[in-house]
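Dear H.,

Thanks for agreeing to be a second pair of eyes. The structure we're designing against is below in token form, covering all 772 positions.
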């Protein structure tokens, strides 16, 4: 009954939003930017300069075309603009090249040979910091083709974020974005919030969900994101599903990691488009996963799909799903650690898009998810520790989200919406473990580390937001506020207000100054309760205050530079677990160095510098440097977080010549913090002893990786075959990461490394019918 009344209240709120905005809405002429935004929503990647497409540009005549691509072309034509194809389902907006009337050659006039091709060079830039298409947080964007060409990301889409400034990663898909762990990052697909969409979670989440065939674009907001994104305080990764404006594509691919099939397209007979991908792990997907010290048989299956019915230009209905199934059984080579796990994620959603008028639009989605986690592990280190754990977690969630956008004038946009969710979690944990006396004393633990817990938290969460964005001649501003609340069963309701401000000022057509400030709150979700310590009450919501200031330069010579400074201050921090010595482990909760970090506040600050240059039509390069510092504050001291890296540099070169493409990526950063220790072996008169130094008071050696990728596309009639090969950590550099526990009379730990060199090869065969 409580859930039924909850749904009734939420549905009433949606109807109230509709009533509030339909009354003042009246017909208006769409802007060119709106038409291009609609084309992007259909799955076509559109690139244009904000100097070329201004907010004041409106339709000059009603459009007769019906497909998003032809509507965009028809809208651009009166302004002397056109769409130029630069890749598969990817276009840039350029000026049309006038075709001169044929003039008969006169006597004595030389006849010049006709030039092949209408354009020799296209100099168009998608402004990384455009406050357009409802986005004011300066997202960094990847298209599916961008992700495909990054070494190591063919089967690992979310790992592409490691190339961006401010992102800390050592090979795992679980990147730390401006000091925030992945648990503080909101990941959305088609407007649906996802929880931990990764494979091989037992071992650093080495693979992310999502075949790149399912992705149109992936936007990363590392700070200052708009108020429509809530519930997480660190960052946002918003993934748009792939779609075609016409025709279809069928693809089959394989690599050493997985086999995949996909289909995407639009029906020529019905107002219907679809996306279906299926991926399954290849045999021996991880003969030796991680740093080479483990053996096992991880397996995974993944399916992503979306079917959309759009009976007219004003409405569209969507049915989507995401299904993940992982089965993992791995062990260290010397049988000290074992882990067996089964992870199952099921998401199903339905969406409704409505264009009430040209000025008023809405997107509503209802999603149901059911997630299960079952894990068993054991640790046996002679003379140090013995134990095993059984961990069973599951949760189900119903989410409702409705977004509205109202444009009363070309320079003014009002956005508002609401979301609500009902979550039930079932968490059961059983740990039996015993430490040797000197180990327990050295780490400040009890010799008996056994625990049994069974908790069932339930929560109803809701949020509402509104934002006003206005554009003047050289200034654009967005002011927004968000309200969130959480009602955990048996506890008082928590409520949070989040004001946010985003600004951009165009100093010149090429120089842009921007900044943001805002509050970002994050409540602990029921599935995040720390059952391994038998948590009995939810944590107080986190509060992070983001401040950003940056300057961006874009020239007509295909050069882009950006300098950005940021500060993220947590005034309320949720406790988190970390391992003092061992970072690469199958059973982190059984390792004796496990510790709960509970700072009173934290801070992450840094400066990011990035540059991009297109040297020729086939050669481009980029580089990003970050200086940063991440600390946790305690009553009498401050300590670095375990992933603090003061200096980081990533750079790359991409060369394309006809059907061949090659990319080289270099990554380097300061070594992560290290805690030193001293082991005193036993003597005739004294037992062994372990002395732990200051936490994170030293550093490991610097991290370096060189990654390579090359592909060759072979076109046929109606099909094309792409062959590719890639290598990560090509130099096989031993990047130190941690101290691995050993059973030894002379020492208790030995240095461990991050991931070794790895190779992958594969192919993708595509059959397509495009009517562009």
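And this is the sequence the design step returned. I haven't edited it by hand at all.
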């Amino acid at each position: 009954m409580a859930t039924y009344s909850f749904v009734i209240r939420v549905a009433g709120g949606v109807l109230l939003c509709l009533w509030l905005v339909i009354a003042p809405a009246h017909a208006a002429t769409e802007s060119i930017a709106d038409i291009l935004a609609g084309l992007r929503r259909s799955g076509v990647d559109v690139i244009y300069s904000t100097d070329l497409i201004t907010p004041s540009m409106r339709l000059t005549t009603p459009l007769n075309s019906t497909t998003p691509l032809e509507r965009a072309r028809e809208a651009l034509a009166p302004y002397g603009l056109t769409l130029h194809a630069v890749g598969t389902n990817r276009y840039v907006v350029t000026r049309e090249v006038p075709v001169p009337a044929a003039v008969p050659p006169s006597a004595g006039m030389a006849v010049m040979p006709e030039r092949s091709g209408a354009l020799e060079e296209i100099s168009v830039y998608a402004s990384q910091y455009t406050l357009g298409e409802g986005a004011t947080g300066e997202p960094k964007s990847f298209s599916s083709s961008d992700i495909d060409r990054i070494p190591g990301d063919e089967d690992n889409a979310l790992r592409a974020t490691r190339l961006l400034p401010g992102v800390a990663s050592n090979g795992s898909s679980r990147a730390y974005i401006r000091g925030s762990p992945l648990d503080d990052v909101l990941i959305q697909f088609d407007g649906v919030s996802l929880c931990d969409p990764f494979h091989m979670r037992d071992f650093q989440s080495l693979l992310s969900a999502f075949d790149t065939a399912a992705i149109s674009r992936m936007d990363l907001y590392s700070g200052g994101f708009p108020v429509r994104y809530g519930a997480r305080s660190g960052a946002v990764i918003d993934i748009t599903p792939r779609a075609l404006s016409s025709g279809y594509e069928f693809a089959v691919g394989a690599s050493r990691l997985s086999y995949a099939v996909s289909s995407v397209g639009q029906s020529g007979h019905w107002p219907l488009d679809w996306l279906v991908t299926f991926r399954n792990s290849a045999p021996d997907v991880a003969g030796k996963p991680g740093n080479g010290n483990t053996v096992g048989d991880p397996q995974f299956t993944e399916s992503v799909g979306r079917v959309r019915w759009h009976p007219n230009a004003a409405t569209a209905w969507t049915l989507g799903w995401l299904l993940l199934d992982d089965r993992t059984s791995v062990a260290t080579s010397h049988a000290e650690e074992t882990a067996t796990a089964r992870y199952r994620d099921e998401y199903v959603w339905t969406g409704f898009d409505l264009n009430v008028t040209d000025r008023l639009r809405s997107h509503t989605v209802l999603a149901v998810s059911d997630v299960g986690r079952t894990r068993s592990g054991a640790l046996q280190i002679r003379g140090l520790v013995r134990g095993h754990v059984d961990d069973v977690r599951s949760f189900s969630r119903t989410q409702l989200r409705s977004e509205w956008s109202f444009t009363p004038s070309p320079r003014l946009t009002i956005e508002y919406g609401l979301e609500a969710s009902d979550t039930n979690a079932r968490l059961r944990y059983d740990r039996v473990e015993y430490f040797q006396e000197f180990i327990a004393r050295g780490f400040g633990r009890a010799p008996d580390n056994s625990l049994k817990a069974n908790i069932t938290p339930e929560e109803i969460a809701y949020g509402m937001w509104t934002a006003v964005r206005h554009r003047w001649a050289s200034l654009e501003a967005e002011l927004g506020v968000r309200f969130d609340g959480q009602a955990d069963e048996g506890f008082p309701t928590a409520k949070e207000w989040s004001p946010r401000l985003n600004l951009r000022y165009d100093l010149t057509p090429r120089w842009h100054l921007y900044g943001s400030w805002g509050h970002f709150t994050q409540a602990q979700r029921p599935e995040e309760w720390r059952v391994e310590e038998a948590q009995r009450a939810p944590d107080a919501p986190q509060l992070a205050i983001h401040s950003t200031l940056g300057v961006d330069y874009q020239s007509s010579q295909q050069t882009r530079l950006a300098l950005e400074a940021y500060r993220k201050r947590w005034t309320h921090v949720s406790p988190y677990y970390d391992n003092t010595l061992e970072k690469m482990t199958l059973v982190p909760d059984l390792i004796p160095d496990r510790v709960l970090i509970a700072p009173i506040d934290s801070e992450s600050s840094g400066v990011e510098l990035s540059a991009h240059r297109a040297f020729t039509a086939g050669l481009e390069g980029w580089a990003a440097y970050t200086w940063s510092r991440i600390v946790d504050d305690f009553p009498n001291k401050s300590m670095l977080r375990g992933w603090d890296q003061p200096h980081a540099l990533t750079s790359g070169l991409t060369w394309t010549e006809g059907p061949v493409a090659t990319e080289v990526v270099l990554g380097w950063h300061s070594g992560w913090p290290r805690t030193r220790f001293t082991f005193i072996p036993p003597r005739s008169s004294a037992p062994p002893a372990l002395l732990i130094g200051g936490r994170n008071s030293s550093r490991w050696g610097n991290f370096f990786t060189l990654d390579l990728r090359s592909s060759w596309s072979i076109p046929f009639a109606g099909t094309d075959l792409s062959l590719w090969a890639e290598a990560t950590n090509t130099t096989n550099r031993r990047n130190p990461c941690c101290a691995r526990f050993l059973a030894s009379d002379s020492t208790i730990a030995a240095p461990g490394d991050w991931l070794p060199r790895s190779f992958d090869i594969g192919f993708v065969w595509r059959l397509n019918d495009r009517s562009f």
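Two observations from my side: Helices lie at 2-22, 32-41, 68-76, 144-148, 437-443. Residues 1-8, 10-28, 98-137, 286-291 have pLDDT under 50 and may be disordered.

Warmly,
E.
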